[in-house]
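Researcher: Batch entry, complex prediction.
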Amino acid sequence: MNAAGKRIGSQTLVFPGRPAVQSGASVVGPKEGSGPLGQYFDVVKGDTLLGDRSWERAEVRMLGEAVELAVYKAGLKLQDIQALLCGDLLNQITASSFAARELPFPLVGLYGACSTFVEGMSLGAMMVDGAYATAVVAAASSHHDTAERQFRYPTEFGNQRPPAAQWTVTAAGAVVLGRGEGPHVTFATLGRVVDMGAVDVNDMGSAMAPAAAETIWQHLQDTGRKPSHYDLIATGDLGRLGRKLCMELLRRRGLDVSGNFADCGCLIFDFTPEVHCGGSGCGCSAAAFAGYFLGELAAGRLNRVLLVATGSLHSPGSSQQGESLPGIAHAVAIENPGQEGSSP
Amino acid sequence: MNAAGKRIGSQTLVFPGRPAVQSGASVVGPKEGSGPLGQYFDVVKGDTLLGDRSWERAEVRMLGEAVELAVYKAGLKLQDIQALLCGDLLNQITASSFAARELPFPLVGLYGACSTFVEGMSLGAMMVDGAYATAVVAAASSHHDTAERQFRYPTEFGNQRPPAAQWTVTAAGAVVLGRGEGPHVTFATLGRVVDMGAVDVNDMGSAMAPAAAETIWQHLQDTGRKPSHYDLIATGDLGRLGRKLCMELLRRRGLDVSGNFADCGCLIFDFTPEVHCGGSGCGCSAAAFAGYFLGELAAGRLNRVLLVATGSLHSPGSSQQGESLPGIAHAVAIENPGQEGSSP
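Model: Structure tokens for the complex:
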């Protein structure tokens, strides 16, 4: 690898400049705070409205708070940040845009459904690695009640959710990527859109699993790594069904990930009945990474993590028009300095 | 400038590797085809439905066609392209996602409302300049009938539009950015979100003008250039009202752009009564640049263009909740080789 080619294989960007994840911050709702990862989140809100007049405004505030807290934890000022790479699930990503209007740096607005956080980390790592920035923030958010009423039914309606459904998390996560201390982003594998024809909007895990398997496979092909290189391969929000399906799809391609595979959607909640298949939403992988994995990396309990955020790229309108659910997954490798091993 | 710092000022990325706009393609509807720029577009469709069953499906097809045509015109195969940086106005940018599922390369999904095309050009130029890719496509689309029924009223409803309104164009534009021949992308100035409290969704030009003025001012500050450096400073879709307001805001900051300022929304239509203030939509600046400006650059009639695409970052939901219209504008400088002058 040299300055003339910071990519390998067909989809993977290489970051020889070793951009660091300098800090991370997570702000979650009460349900996420009382889940298995609760102790790892920076801020657990007591309610989902934050005393404001709409859930949408609450989401904006949670996202802004996560961004500002990540900057603070990195020992930086807002004026040191050169871009916010951010998205969410709301139509026209208004959570991100409205959070960004309070911030003094440019917004690079992203939409990759629940893959958005890793899309932002990929682009942000590239900006830092390529010396286009010294510090940027990648962030994403979701909110159970804003997502439910936009994609499915208003929560007040109280409809019964089918067993394959997942529970959109109320959470925002943000990381500062820069030239300071922290685990390195070593690779980013950008995902293609994969559509296997799934049409059930209440089973997004199955719709996204083929894209996750494809991106994981491609990442390993491009880098020449084995699954065992990673202490943890963590998908974003496949949930219980999608996680199983992804592992099976990888197994059929000769890849055994059974020893080091996790899904943020399966980690974030106890499997109480209403949660069904697990957590989902942009905020799921963002908060799980910024809140939990990053701390494990700092403590050295994890040294090599492949974070694979997965998105279902449908809209309510596209489903009503009979379209299927295209999936996408982007992956970033985050590794502690000196722990990358001998792989390329 | 050196490898340790490919940015200047607070918001501007520098591309010393001179990524080239290798080709551009534009696919537009009949109304755009019969407008003043009609002769410059590659494909003018005879109707807005393309014989398909929904306008949304027609938009997907126009966008995919623009991407494929741009790749063809660059003398490349789809397999040579390493990413599609793309967005549109539909909820969850389904036009982009559904177009991308037919394409064999990764999707970097973007949302910057009508600033999306330049957001994609900025990121794409960075990918090529930084050697993370040898060829990528930046693209955007909009469709009058899909946008009207999502943001305002179904067109069948036939409501009367107020004088400040603009006409969302039916158009897709795409460019190939790579290491081949063509005018260079020399700078990108990423925009901050600027919200002056405008609330009229039928006057988006006024809502976006402050962001446009801010980004143009910042670009000139960062680069040390004067407005007269450019043969043309072209905003995306401010329309007649927003264009005037932007020029006035710049005048108050001591910048006279009266001699070389244009707005794609003012260029794309004759001012027939129903068009009111001009064109708008992601496809407006995308098709105007790919169809018109790029040809003028190739012919040497333009040598230095600053393209400033502007977006109103609201959603129908945010407006119904009483929120104002945050604006954003991103800018890219596109210059013919050897014609960049002595400015930094």
